Amino acid sequence: MATDSWALAVDEQEAAAESLSTLQLKEEKAKPDANGDNLVDTTNQVEVLQRDPNSPLYSVKSFEELHLKPQLLQGVYAMGFNRPSKIQENALPMMLAEPPQNLIAQSQSGTGKTAAFVLAMLSRVEPGNKYPQCLCLSPTYELALQTGKVIEQMGKFYPELKLAYAVRGNKLERGQKISEQIVIGTPGTVLDWCSKLKFIDPKKIKVFVLDEADVMIATQGHQDQSIRIQRMLPRDCQMLLFSATFEDSVWKFAQKVVPDPNIIKLKREEETLDTIKQYYVLCNSRDEKFRALCNIYGAITIAQAMVFCHTRKTAGWLAAELSKEGHQVALLSGEMMVEQRAAVIERFREGKEKVLVTTNVCARGIDVEQVSVVINFDLPVDKDGNPDNETYLHRIGRTGRFGKRGLAINMVDSKHSMNILNRIQEHFSKKINRLDTDDLDEIEKITN
Ligand SMILES: Nc1ncnc2c1ncn2[C@@H]1O[C@H](COP(=O)(O)OP(=O)(O)OP(=O)(O)O)[C@@H](O)[C@H]1O
């Protein structure tokens, strides 16, 4: 398998990379809300969706039929999974085929992509060999930690298996070689571990995973680092690229750089999940948006909510205002230290705060089951002020995880933002209905 074509395609990609937004992240299950929640369904709903042929969770196969190793079957069932989702059913046979094949895969947010590539890594790793064999890149520190937890949980029936986190702050002694069989980390640190610090022998890597692959390709810094890592890998190393979104130019680029890939791609109209209801509210100012947010909160039972702002400043202001109103609010934005960010997410996951006010840094991958509402306090736009459709999809995908129902509410406060919303609707061919937040009955109706 040739691995140098990625580098050759870099120049063609640069223009596309410029126009795309930067990174974001992922997380795990929150404890159930003691008050209950009328938006989050029980696991029965998942069972139903998994039997509905139109659902991304639909699969005809059982995990047994995917021929997973017994220890992995045990791991899967210990995580409470009963049957594979569509992406797991489709991707796993391709990823486990011999000889190993490359894959570029797209599947809607929250449909089990992480479990799919984790199972692929765990299937290929030889725990008896005490050196890194699988490398997984995540765009953020928090996402790396979360995916690492999935690897640890799913691989717990391999007693010899160890995982190393190549993330900022994880200091090892220079020149030492690590014995962990799987390494997960962010591109900069992984690159250092492979090159400058030589903790990893890249020539022994068998599986290379790019999670949130589109943003890894589209963000210039990440792209450069990922390419430099890829160049060090052996020619027959299996490459697996996963994301919920692939902007057209990124998709083309991915196909050029991954040799002979298998491809799983969604049609545009399949990208949005029908289980997430989308609305917008019309306001005239930031203060009105704040009032509308409070009205929504007063009218419906919300387990946990994520509120997205365009800037750190707005996020800080909003978190302070919500606190003044008596809400338990957490704030997470990019300028915070990574350890602080991890602690904020951990508290949110544990249900200690009900609202997380954040920026795009949290748009991707956060997996908190109890998030029943996502609010776009500001609509996602790129640096030129155009709609950022990919970020929109990732943001609203923080709710409606794995078959649960969710609610996404967009705050529109100007002609310009109405125009952005219209363009998002057009892009996904999906109608976003207006909601009157002064009409409590109407708000209540949307949750039923
Ligand atoms: N087969 C399964 N059965 C039941 N639950 C599952 C299954 N696969 C994954 N899950 C659960 O579904 C949730 C979403 O999965 P995951 O985080 O892998 O989705 P994703 O597609 O990677 O999402 P995103 O696009 O946001 O990164 C997780 O809580 C995970 O534990």
UniProtKB/TrEMBL annotation:
Localization terms from the record: Cytoplasm; Nucleus
UniProt xrefs under Gene3D superfamilies: P-loop containing nucleotide triphosphate hydrolases
The organism of origin for this protein: Chrysolophus pictus (Golden pheasant)
PROSITE patterns from the UniProt entry: HELICASE_ATP_BIND_1 (PS51192), HELICASE_CTER (PS51194), Q_MOTIF (PS51195)
EC number: 3.6.4.13
Annotated Helicase C-terminal domain residues: 275-443
Pfam families: DEAD, Helicase_C
Listed name of the protein: RNA helicase
Superkingdom field: Eukaryota
